[in-house]
Amino acid sequence: MPLPAKSFAMVQTERRTLEPMDLPLPEIDDDSGLLRIEACGICGSDYEQYEGVLRTPMPVVPGHEPLGIVAAIGDRAAKRWGVDVGDRIAVETMLSCRHCRPCLGGAYHLCDARRIYSYIPLSEPPGLWGAYAQFMYLDPNCIVHKMDRTLPAATAVLFNPLGAGFRWAVEIPRTGPGDTVLILGPGQRGLASVLACREAGAARILVTGLEADARKLELARHFGADATIDVQNENTRERVLELTDGRGADVVVDVSSYATEPVAESLDYVRMGGRVVLAGVKGFREIPAFISDKIVLKEITVHGAIGVTNRGYANAIRLLESRRYPVEAMHTHDFALNEAELAIRTLAREIPGDESIHSCLIPEY
User: Fold this and answer.
1) Other Cβ atoms within 10 Å of 341 Cβ, number
2) Which of 188, 58, 74, 196 is nearest to 142 (CA)?
3) CATH entry 3.90.180.10 includes domain 6-157+326-362
4) Model pTM?
5) What separation in angstroms does the CA of 93 have from each of 15, 22, 117, 307?
6) What is the dihedral sign for C-alpha 248, 252, 254, 260?
7) Domain 166-304: homologous superfamily in CATH
8) What is the average per-residue pLDDT within 191-218?
C-alpha cells in the first residue's frame, strides 16, 4: 500500500491547546524508519505536558507511548532492529546518544543528551516525533520491541505502564519472593506495579488510594493486591503496621501524581532497612514535613525512578503475550486522534461523570 504524502497529527501549540494539522511524511534513509500508529497510550505525564508543567518546547507533537506497524524501514535499520515492514513494534520513549559515560555504562536512560520523543519540537526535522499522529518517525537511535499482532491494540499498548511497573516496583528495589510491597497510588502505574510484584513473587501487596479511587482499588485487588487502604477514611500508618505485623513494608513505591504527602509519609510506612522508590512527579514542589532523620535512623534506601529500560519493557511484553492476567480490565477508554484533548482531560478528572484508568488514542486511516 503506497504511503500518503502527509500525516494527520494533533500538535500542542501552547498551554492546554492542541491543534489538528496535516504534516508532511518524512523521508527515511538506511538507518531510520516510519511507524504507522495503531494506538498511543495516555498517562499522567501527557497531562503535565498539556498543562505546561513540563515546559516542553512548542509547537510539538505529543505522545510517548507508541504502538504500531512498521510502514517503511531502511535496510540497515531492519537488520539492526530485527524487524521489517508489516511487523508490530512498541517503541521506547527515550532517545539516547549511545556514546556518553551513562550509555556506555548501561544506564542509557540517564544519557547526558537524552531526549524524549514527544518533547522534540516540530521545528526539528523531520518533525513527526510524537505519537499523537497517524505516522511517527523512527530515529536511528530508537529502541523497538517486536510484539504479537494478535493482541488487541488497546491491550498491547499497555506495554508502557506495565514496563514502568516492572522497573519501578521490582527492578529498582529488587523486589522478590517473600517481600511486602506498599504501592502509594492506584493509577495505571500503581496497578501495573501490582501485576509486576505479583509476577515477581511478592508475598504481600498493599495499595493506597483516595475515596474517589474505589474503582481502581477494587481493580488492584482483582489484579492480586492483598489489601487496599482508603487514606481519607483510614489511618494509613496504623493499617500498614497492622497488615505487616508491626514491621512495616519491605518496599514502598510512590506512584501518586502531584500529592506531596506520600513522600514524607513513606518513611513511616517502610521497615527498618527498607527501600523507598519515588516515581510520582510532584510538579517541582517542596515536600512539607519531610524529616530526613527518619532515613538516617532507619537506614532507609531512597531511590528515584525515571522512565523504563529495556528489561522492564521486555518483561511487560512477555506478561502481555502470556495472557495470564486480565490486564485488559485496566483499559477503560478509546479516543479518536482528534479527541486527544478530551482524552487528557478525562484522565485528569476534568470531565464530570467520567473517569479513565488507562486510555489510548486510535488514529483513523
Assistant:
1) 16
2) 74
3) yes
4) 0.93
5) 22, 23, 6, 8
6) positive
7) NAD(P)-binding Rossmann-like Domain (3.40.50.720)
8) 96
